[in-house]
């Protein structure tokens, strides 16, 4: 060990000496500022001479759909959240100097929705249809270094405004970077790190590096210096390699003693620094963050991380974030992921397309596993809704989507996703698709024939897994080779060409048919969407099959199906946060069927799952008038539940996803019959009304399969309190109190200090309170915000799925007495003073955030 550190010191001295010959050549510039934008088509806008002085000046990331707001009429649709699409143009000028000559200069877009076309100085660089993928263009051949401006022009064509089943956003909605390197440099996404052998004593770090030479090949010696540092920037391993200047590639294995493993509880991260030398002159350097971990799926015992068996407690997540639409700062993702971690979530499924690099960074840092998903559609499209979910009435022209270019672009998009995200330790699966069977009718036809008393779309059935019954029906319903299986095998092959260290998976909605057709056997792990009824028979029929709940209802029965079966790896509940789209009719802009609403407030379902997923004692309660509830009670029959269907034209099966009709309050008419629901992980709970016990119940005695304690209580003003007990000792309590008049406003911030980088965000929460501090849920009113100092308002929200107020404004009507404001820093140090004023009342409060 002493010899290792001596060698490390010698190499450090050697490196510092050679650094004096030339400065580090790689420069990554923030290219987000000072774009000009025009919403509409300008066919000549790609030309260098085009006059854009009247265009709007803005910074990206930028989502014009959320800025335009919700619109009931016109070119909007239920599937995409009642926001417009259209065509937009972006232009940005920038200067280069003589010092930039003989460099490779590229531009990287992390996401443009969608059908982007990019020009530099009037020269076409290319078109990228996929709105979720990151991509790069080489600008070098077309640049000017004489002090006159260079011009980037980007056309974004989202005129097919309902090309997805959910909100997508529109525009350059993720980060843009200008990358300058030497002619000899590490290729884009050219460093891949794996950890093939991991133990507490030793880890082997395998590193593959691909270089690119845009200049002439010569005989200069090329060496690569690999340095691994821990989170404290302390060197833990180093190695130097000489490589062939023609192959321009290297593969090396570095051993690390007593590694700190990345896990859910302790997400330890390391940084690999790769320096490229040409005849001892530094010409490029790249840093990659990675983690050391091992995981395994087993057909009998489920999932393990670092040798420890665990259940995947996952949620599905779309890429929008309420008031900011698709243009989500990293700090908002951090805020949201911390919320999910707080209730016991340990995994995220990126539903159903590539998400932002910043979200992956957050998952790495916080310890959240990621199912990284590539596609929701393949070569055949899914139906899109115009007025309400399930009407499938969107026009063909308005719903043109990725399937039109899938055959041309799928391989490149899939491989680019894997290359981009390869080194993230949070990523543990590559998903090639979601519910693709719906787009190939012979799957549903076969299912319905084999299960004559069930409907494939109904989700309620007794599964048949007898291959002798399924196979002849399937063969009858298909004319030739199954295109779904053909594509699936091709996608899996492409995944393995890039990464053979992680399993492939899909979200299958007809797994019984997929196992016969070959779809299921093409995967390493088979994801079941809403098919918990299949678990036992699938495991019995195919004992080597690795089963995962890839999309699940957020109910106790769904979770119980998993915890009672070792062979099921876990679930991904639908959904972690409310998302826009897939809703309607107006004004229902999205679905709050989640653990947290659009604004980030925890929902009753979120509280319920916290009692399932965390060990810390918790009790929580909500209430419903007996006249409105799905539950009813009689002395003779006890508690009964009746499925409450949303009235037509809303899809009747949506009720399977919706939570119970409940309210977080104690505020009704005197003597009105109120049903109280209590969620707890305590052994028993006791309800009190104004200090009088209304009875104690044991969780183990709940007859219904819902894990909910219930009381029927006549309303009386005062305090309703519930106390949870373990071993007869009080473990937790929760109270609801009758509400009075609005007397004050509470304003809080999730951060008292933010970075003055122009990106960091403080989330400001406001609540309406009465004189005793009780939340006022029944008197929502308008709140006006004002901001002074080094901050700016990037959005307001109240979390309600019926809220179609503008987000890019300084006022909001609360919902259930609450609202949020997102305040983003400028690039200047200073205080940010945020004031909230209750509309038409002399009630205000303020909070200060420091930006430095």
TrEMBL record:
Residues covered by the Glycoside hydrolase family 2 catalytic domain: 302-437
Which SUPFAM superfamilies does this chain map to? Answer: (Trans)glycosidases, beta-Galactosidase/glucuronidase domain, Galactose-binding domain-like
Protein keywords? Glycosidase, Hydrolase
Question: PROSITE patterns attached here?
Answer: PROKAR_LIPOPROTEIN
Q: Which residues form the Glycoside hydrolase family 2 immunoglobulin-like beta-sandwich domain?
A: 191-293
> Where does the Glycosyl hydrolases family 2 sugar binding domain lie?
29-181
Family to which the UniProt record says this protein belongs: Belongs to the glycosyl hydrolase 2 family.
Q: What is this protein called?
A: Glycoside hydrolase family 2 protein
Task: Record the organism.
Answer: Aquimarina algiphila
């Amino acid at each position: 060990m002493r010899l290792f550190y001596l060698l490390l010191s010698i190499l450090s001295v050697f490196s510092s000496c050679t650094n004096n010959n030339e400065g580090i050549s790689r420069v990554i510039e923030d290219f987000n500022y000072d774009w000009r934008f025009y919403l509409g088509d300008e066919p000549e806008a790609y030309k260098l001479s085009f006059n854009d002085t009247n265009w709007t000046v803005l910074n990206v990331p930028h989502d014009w759909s959320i800025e335009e707001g919700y619109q009931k009429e016109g070119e909007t649709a239920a599937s995409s959240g009642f926001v417009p699409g259209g065509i937009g143009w972006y232009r940005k000028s920038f200067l280069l100097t003589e010092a930039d000559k003989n460099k490779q200069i590229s531009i990287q877009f992390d996401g443009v929705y969608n059908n982007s076309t990019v020009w530099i100085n009037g020269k076409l660089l290319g078109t990228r249809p996929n709105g979720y993928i990151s991509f790069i263009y080489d600008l070098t051949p077309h640049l000017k270094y004489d002090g006159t401006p260079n011009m980037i022009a980007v056309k974004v064509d989202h005129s097919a405004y309902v090309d997805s089943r959910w909100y997508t956003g529109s525009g350059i909605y993720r980060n843009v970077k200008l990358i300058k390197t030497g002619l000899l440099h590490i290729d884009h996404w050219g460093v891949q790190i794996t950890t093939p052998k991991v133990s507490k004593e030793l880890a082997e770090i395998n590193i593959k590096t691909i270089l690119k030479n845009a200049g002439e090949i010569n005989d200069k010696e090329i060496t690569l210096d690999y340095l691994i540092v821990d989170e404290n920037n302390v060197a833990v391993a180093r190695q130097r390699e000489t490589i062939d200047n023609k192959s321009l590639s290297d593969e090396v294995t570095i051993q690390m003693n007593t590694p700190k493993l990345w896990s859910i509880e302790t997400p330890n991260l390391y940084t690999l620094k790769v320096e490229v030398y040409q005849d001892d002159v530094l010409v490029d350097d790249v840093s990659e963050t990675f983690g050391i971990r091992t995981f395994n799926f087993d057909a009998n015992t489920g999932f393990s991380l670092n040798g420890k068996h665990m259940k995947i407690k996952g949620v599905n997540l779309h890429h929008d974030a309420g008031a900011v639409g698709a243009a989500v700062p990293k700090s908002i993702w951090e805020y949201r992921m911390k919320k999910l971690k707080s209730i016991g979530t340990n995994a995220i499924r990126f539903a159903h397309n590539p998400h932002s690099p910043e979200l992956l960074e957050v998952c790495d840092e916080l310890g959240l596993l990621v199912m990284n998903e590539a596609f929701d559609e393949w070569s055949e499209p899914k139906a899109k809704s115009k007025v309400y979910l399930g009407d499938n009435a969107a026009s063909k022209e308005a719903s043109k989507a990725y399937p039109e270019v899938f055959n041309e672009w799928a391989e490149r998009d899939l491989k680019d996703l894997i290359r981009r995200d390869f080194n993230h330790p949070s990523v543990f699966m590559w998903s090639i698709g979601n519910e693709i069977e719906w787009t190939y009718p012979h799957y549903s036809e076969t299912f319905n024939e084999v299960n004559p008393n069930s409907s494939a779309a109904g989700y309620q059935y007794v599964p048949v897994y007898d291959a002798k019954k399924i196979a002849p029906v399937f063969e009858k319903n298909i004319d030739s080779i199954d295109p779904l299986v053909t594509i699936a095998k091709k996608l899996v092959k492409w995944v393995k060409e890039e990464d053979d260290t992680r399993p492939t998976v899909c979200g299958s909605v007809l797994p019984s048919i997929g196992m016969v057709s070959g779809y299921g056997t093409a995967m390493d792990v088979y994801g079941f969407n809403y098919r918990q009824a299949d678990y036992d028979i699938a495991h019995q029929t195919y004992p080597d099959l690795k089963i995962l709940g890839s999309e699940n209802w957020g109910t106790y029965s769904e979770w119980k199906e998993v915890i009672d079966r070792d062979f099921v790896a876990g679930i991904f509940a639908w959904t972690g946060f409310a998302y826009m789209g897939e809703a309607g009719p107006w004004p229902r802009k999205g679905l709050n069927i989640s653990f947290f609403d659009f604004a980030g407030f925890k929902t009753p379902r979120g509280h319920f799952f916290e009692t399932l997923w965390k060990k810390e004692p918790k009790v929580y309660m909500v209430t419903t008038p007996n006249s409105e509830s799905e539950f009813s009670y009689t002395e003779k029959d006890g508690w009964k539940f009746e499925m409450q269907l949303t009235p037509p034209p809303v899809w009747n099966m949506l009720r399977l996803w919706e939570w119970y009709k409940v309210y977080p309050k104690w505020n009704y008419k005197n003597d009105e019959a109120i049903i109280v629901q209590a969620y707890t992980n305590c052994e028993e709970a006791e309800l009190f009304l104004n200090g009088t016990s209304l009875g104690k119940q044991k969780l183990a005695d709940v007859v219904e399969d819902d894990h909910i304690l219930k009381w029927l209580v006549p309303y009386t003003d005062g305090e309703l309190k519930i106390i949870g007990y373990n071993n007869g000792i009080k473990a937790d309590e929760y109270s609801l109190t009758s509400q009075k008049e609005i007397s004050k406003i509470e304003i809080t911030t999730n951060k008292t200090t933010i970075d003055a980088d122009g990106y960091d965000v403080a989330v400001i929460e406001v609540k309406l309170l009465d004189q005793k501090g009780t939340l006022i849920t029944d008197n929502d009113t308008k709140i006006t915000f004002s901001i002074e100092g080094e901050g700016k308002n990037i959005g307001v929200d109240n979390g309600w799925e019926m809220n179609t107020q503008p987000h890019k404004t300084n006022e909001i009507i609360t919902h259930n007495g609450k609202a949020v404001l997102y305040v983003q820093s400028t690039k200047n140090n200073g205080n940010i003073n945020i004031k909230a004023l209750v509309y038409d009342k002399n009630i205000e409060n303020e909070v200060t955030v420091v930006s430095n």
